[in-house]
Amino acid sequence: MINSPKSEKTIGITGASGALGKELTKFFRQKGHKVIGFTHSKTDFKISNESPNQWIRWECGEETSLKIHLEKIDILILNHGIYDLSREYSNYEKSIEINALSKFKFLNLFEDIALTNKSTIKKEIWINTSEAEILPALNPSYEISKSLIGQLVSFKKNLLDKDTKKKLIIKKIILGPFKSELNPIGIMSPKFVSKKIYDLANSKSYLIIISPNPLTYLLFPLKEFFNFLYCQIIYKYKS
């Protein structure tokens, strides 16, 4: 939880140089938290009152090299991704690597860090999967990659053992279309979305849903419920 006895937390945000990443950074800084921004950009970033307190540059495939930085983080927000409209076959591989496999590597790495965490405060990881996980986005490679990371996060969450549950909180962020460089016609503003993420993350709910589409609020809880039942069957079968 963000509002805990330890008021100041260290927040890690991937995709921190994007539209939503910038707004999340500003919002958390205004609330008195320290922010570490992870970015693929090769541009030199200056430090200001609205920027991350620290910038870390990284590339997909190098997630394990970030362990020393991730160990300092209380809440890790996985927000990086691409929305490539090209029709080349390599685009599918790139989308799956960045939107799904990279985030899953972060999740597994942060889980390992949480298990060795000696603090009584749980580590948290919030993963932005998008409503394209089950709803059309008019981009097959994007939909496939989001569906994959959505399923991976659901299975990871439902199959956590008791010891890990005491150390790690997983939340899935489901966002509708918001305005950014990738989606200039998005309905919601990044500032509105960042505030809603902050407010909803303080609840005990695993899902953080922010969308103008009413179907999203119906379909995603149903999907997660059936995933939960499926994982319960797996548990019983294994035992």
Describe this structure in words.
The protein is an alpha/beta fold and 239 residues long. The protein has a single domain, classed as 3-Layer(aba) Sandwich (Rossmann fold). It has 7 helices and 7 strands. It has a 7-stranded parallel beta sheet, with helices on both faces. The longest helix is centred in the middle third of the chain and has 27 residues, at 89-115. It is globular and about 55 Å long.
Adjacency order of strands in the biggest sheet: 3-2-1-4-5-6-7
So, CATH architecture? 3-Layer(aba) Sandwich
Instruction: Give the integer mean of the pLDDT values.
Output: 90
Number of domains: 1
By CATH, the superfamily comes out as: NAD(P)-binding Rossmann-like Domain
- The gross shape turns out to be globular
Runs in which pLDDT lies below 50 for 5 or more consecutive residues are: none
Helix content: 40-55%
CATH class: Alpha Beta
Query: What's the N-to-C terminus distance?
Result: 33 Å
Can you summarize the main beta sheet? 7 strands, parallel
Number of strands: 7
The CATH topology is Rossmann fold
> Beta-sheet strand percentage?
15-25%
**What is the helix/strand order?**
EHEEHEHEHHEHEH
Rounded radius of gyration (Å) = 17 Å
Number of helices: 7
Q: Structural class, from helix and strand content? A: alpha/beta
